[in-house]
Amino acid sequence: MRKLIKVVILSLLLVSFAAAALADVPYASYSYDEWDRSVSAPVGYTVEKTVYGAMTSSGAWKEAQDLITTADGRILVADTGNNRILEYDASFNLLRTITEFQRNGQPMAVTGPTGLHVDADGKLYVAMSSAAQAVIADLQTLETTLVIENLEHALLGSDFKFVPAKIGADNAGRIYILSTGCFSGLLQFSPQGEFMGYYGSNKVAVTAEVIFQYYWKSIMTDEQRANMTSILPVEYSNLHCAPDGFVYASTVGTETPVNQIKRLNPLGNNTYFARGGKEVNFGDEELASVKNVSTMVTLLPTFVDVVTTEDCEFIYAVDRAYGRIFERDRNGNLISVFGALGNQEGTFKQPSAIALLNGDVLVLDTGKSSVTVFEPSEYAALVHEAVQQYNAGEYAASRDVWLEVLRRNTNATQAYAGVGRALLKENRYDEALEYFKLGDSREEYSQAYRIVRLNVIRDNVPWVVCAVVVAVILFKLLGLLLRKLGWKKGMIADFGGRLLDKVHLSRNTVFPKVLFHPFDGFNQIRFGGSVALWPSVIILVLYVIATIYQFVGTGYLFNQNNIADINLWLLLAKSLGVVALFIVAQWSMAILTNGSGRFKDIIVTACYSLAPYTVGLLVGTWLSNFIIMDEMYAEYIILIGLAWSAMLLLIGTMVIHELPFARALGFLALTVAAMAVILFVLVLFYTLLMQLRTFGYTLYVELVFRM
Predict the structure, then answer these.
(1) How far is Cα 320 from Cα 283, in angstroms, rounded to an integer?
(2) Domain 377-487, CATH among 3.40.50.150, 3.40.220.10, 3.30.950.10, 1.25.40.10
(3) Is 182 helix (H, G, I), strand (E, B) or coil?
(4) For residues 679, 681, 685 and 686, what is the CA-based torsion angle, rounded to 10 degrees?
(5) What is the pLDDT of residues 548-585, one digit of tens each?
(6) Which of 50, 158, 193, 258 has the most crowded CB, counting CB atoms within 10 A?
(7) pLDDT tens digits, one per residue of 315-333
(8) Which long-range contacts (CB under 8 A, 24 or more apart) does 341-347 make?
(9) What DSSP designation does 280 have?
(10) How many Å apart are CA 76 and CA 440, to the nearest integer?
């Protein structure tokens, strides 16, 4: 009985501990695999404390819009609604309340501050939207050095309104201002306050709506165009001038999940891409599974602020739509996700700004008038340590730390890649390959494989040369032996021909003629009498095998498919279905246009024409396992096969249907159109069938309920 009581008490304690752990972290922690599926991950950041404005000696904040930290550990809050800037120490003890600047010896009121920035020289940059002013002042004396207001320039237009919301300055002293309602990009100024033009202009995303509106406008009257809503580029929501000289900017209202966070170079071009040139999706990959908890509507991420570490190795951004903070490295790898919408500690109502201080992450919540301080977990600290050691050249040490990360999180792809990089620096190429593959780091895998392949070739060239020499000698000896046995020149070929004749495959079969003398070959099909169908069946089967082999057998560097998701029915529909659809469509067009081609001839022509493409698929797929990313040999082979097949199909159409070149092209175009029509009818029929099935089931349920 005592043992039972002990077990019960222990179970209750474990449950309470688990509940406490969950209470400490009221948000999910996850990462993504190489196919962008969410997988569990250790918690990267936990709540250290939450500071409310009302808890400090400054009193309650009102609509606070920005939060920054200084190099010496001070915290500045833009208390927008109270027209003041609050300066705290690292423990949120109030140091100073800034309500006015000194401008030419006269006080200048702080009015509606919405954006803050402090540069390395101790200058304070303030964007004041309600006052339509951008102020640069000495942080200690509060004496203004520059005020940007009453902005007028030919590039801005007569209807431009200067509403500075966010502000920053790069290492060269250039000033960047985000003006609300400006869709042409950030405003760039010289250190003296001269307007230099737009910076980092966003482009209108090419969507179906944009294309439709473009062509619709072309047929509208001027009055209709004037009343039509314009489609504008996405607007920036915030900016951060990083120590590396780049300007990091967040965008809102993006129609696509990529490019929400940009790293703009001095020319205003986005340079934030993952390894291999892939665009970075900074937010969630699986939007359908992460609905807004308050509205239960799936929204695109809405990033409102971005900040980087001093070494710019890690980037943090706040997503207001879901209340989450995303941490990624400079290569776009997801490190951690934390935060959520809600009322618990560690969740937000309206997150609006983010800052870093001594390794902690500070998030301003305008809705709660609070700042939540997150501290890195042991797991996040390990990731940061590994990156720092690698950058410092301590490759062996970084490898050991990455291995510790993997012991805590086997889904950490960046850890696998990190171990691979360390092994690569240690010239352990074979081991590096395995880790690069697990880390889905194809570019670095290609670099390591280049060296491994070179070493294999160098080590095996002597053996290959010897094997070739031995094979030649054996072949010569075999020839001598056959001649001594009475074999004469040409007897082997005659023997092979007789063997082919016995299996009903004539040496003069039409297939080689189709490949190398297509006009003669297709003429033989059209006018030479009966042609067997079984070679066409073999080619079709090989084509299906080639398509499946391409899906599963393409080399790792070129294969983005998840073999676990293979759908044989879909692959069959893409291969056999397309061929069958083409045959039926061309036969239909032949009937409608009084074409001379027979149904059997169309089948043979289509299948024989597939042969070069099939061979190209098989050879190219096999070759893709032995080449690197810079080599395009496999793609070229497949393209050559495709071009050869297209040529055969065109010539076959000309001969089978007795058409000249131009009419044959038109006939193929009609065939493609017929394929689209047939496919549409099939989809329509399937939809109607499903609706009928649903109706029947509903009727059945209703009858059962009534009875």
Answers:
(1) 11
(2) 1.25.40.10
(3) coil
(4) 20
(5) 999 889 999 888 887 777 777 888 878 888 899 999 99
(6) 50
(7) 999 999 889 999 998 888 8
(8) 341/292, 341/293, 341/294, 342/26, 342/293, 344/23, 344/26, 345/26, 345/47, 345/50, 345/372, 346/24, 346/25, 346/26, 346/27, 346/46, 346/47, 346/50, 346/372, 346/374, 347/26, 347/27, 347/323
(9) P
(10) 41
Domain with CATH 1.25.40.10 in the chain: 377-487
d(CA 390, CA 380): 16
Can you name the CATH fold of 46-202+234-376? Neuraminidase (2.120.10)
Structure tokens at 556: 């790792």
Q: Residue 145 — left, alpha, or beta (φ > 0 → left; ψ -120 to 50 → alpha)? A: alpha
Cα–chain-centroid distance for residue 296? Answer: 25
CA dihedral 418, 422, 425, 426 (to 10 degrees): -150
pLDDT in tens, 78-114: 999 999 999 999 999 999 999 999 999 899 999 999 9
CATH 2.120.10.30 residue ranges of the chain are 46-202+234-376
Q: Are 75 and 92 in contact (CB under 8 A)?
A: yes
Beta carbons within 8 Å of 437's beta carbon, 6+ residues apart: 445, 556
Residue 254 DSSP code? -
Residue 138 burial class via C-beta count within 10 angstroms: exposed 0-12, middle 13-18, buried 19 and up = middle
Residue 222 has pLDDT above 60, yes or no: no
For tokens 């006009």, the residue is 519
